[in-house]
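Thread: sanity check for a docking pose with zinc ion

Original post by kr_44:
Hi all, I'm comparing my docking run against an independent structure prediction. Below are the sequence and the ligand SMILES. Could someone generate the full complex and paste the structure tokens? I mainly care about where the ligand ends up relative to the chain.
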Amino acid sequence: MNLIHQSQLAKEHAYCPYSKFRVGAALLAQDDKVFTGCNVENACYNLGVCAERNAMSKAASEGYRSFKAIAIASDMSDQFISPCGGCRQFMREFGSSWEVYLTKPDGSYLKMDVNELLPVSFGPDDLSMEKVFNIPNK
Ligand SMILES: [Zn+2]
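Reply from moderator J.T.:
Ran it for you. Here is the predicted complex with zinc ion included:
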């Protein structure tokens, strides 16, 4: 699958001098445009950004809001790379039914969707739900 190959190419750009854990992502928009991303670490460790969020931010910053799929690549040969909790929530922002391909370097993959990765999620629609405003403030 081409998207998986593109995620593997994106991994080559990973900036991970601290963890040495390379990750790449390739995000397929509804019009078939592909946005790639890699993890970018920082000497201030907690500022590092995941490959998946980089790809989604690149797309969003160019006006894209709707996606068909994302493929994620790493160097782990024994295990499919799985997105972190933060990236799952970031994916959820753009819908819960699009596809996520967890891959291995040999190109094998596990196909899931956002809802499977983040069930009973909190998303944009929840902000428009009816609220109770008369909660006493002590
Ligand atoms: Zn992540």
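The CA atoms of residues 124 and 130 lie 13 Å apart. Hope that helps with the comparison, let us know if your pose agrees.
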